[in-house]
Amino acid sequence: MNNAFYYSGIKPIPVEVEVILEPDSFRFLLRKDNQDQIIEWRISQIKPDLNHSDNKLILSYGSVPPFEYLEFQSNEFLEVLQNKYPYRKWINSENWINKHAFGLIIGGILILAVAIVSLYFIVAPKLSDNLTKAVPIKWEVDLGDKMFKQFMSDGKENSVKSMQLDSFFKLMNVVSDYPIRMHFSEDTIINAFAIPGGHIVVYKGLVDKISNYESLAGLLAHEYTHVAKKHSLKTILRSASSYLVLAAIFGDLTGLAGIILENANSIQNLSYSRNFEHEADQNAVAILLDRKIGLTGMLDLFKVFLSTGNKGLAVPAFLSTHPVTEDRIKYIESRMAKSEADTIDHHELKQLFQRLKS
Predict the structure, then answer these.
(1) How large is the average pLDDT for residues 265-278?
(2) pLDDT of residue 312
(3) Domains of the chain
């Protein structure tokens, strides 16, 4: 049995009744004028709730006004009716949709937002990384050559010092599938960056700040790793693929060329992910240790970035694009503690570094 309030007449007064659900009817006992009256509603003639709310169910009965009503205070009763009489419609579903339209719209927007965010931050990066693996080295080198010409059109490259950088890196005996080409820019900003395909640009402002060849070796090994591990290309394609996802959703592909051009023009400002930076540090350390070059230089390099950034006016470009974190410094220190005794002095690298500084 189920408790409900029964209403009848022009000015109805609620009467609490116990409703028995029969196979084809509702039956309840009504006491009126000290007399008991059994009332029976045929299931086929019960009208659904026209303004259903979440905390009550109101069913009506009758062919002409005033109708009779049963008001069930528990919304769980709706589930009972749907299970017992699955062939009947107990609420006006269109009215329910209208009442909940705002919530449905908000829910739809949230679902769409989650889908877009998933595409942008999860699907797009994975697609771009898979695409990067499939890019032939020759295509990457050709792309890098075009980007380098576009970037170094300011005439600030010092060809003599570029050759010295090349000689320094060749003395490090790093075997690579890429044609690594070093470039020295006379610009005074504190930065260095790698271009897909093998170009590495080092600025005078950074060279002026470092004081030993070990720092330069660590810097070049770090930037070389960005080339060898395709970090620059992955970063560019991630940006472009994310744009492609958004363009596919909103139907605007006109700006795709612009986004690639923007990356080409500002590749020196690309910010690598924490994973990319850690991988570049690990590989650079492996290169230095294999050649018995001390790791103090890399630690000195990090200290240069941090000390320059703390002087106030502007954060060095290298510090903003290759953030020096406490974890990175601790990693270098931990490796130093294990391997510093195995290092040797490299006279040729030291001489080349001194010529570069002069």
Answers:
(1) 68
(2) 41
(3) 2-99 (2.30.29.30), 117-357 (no CATH)
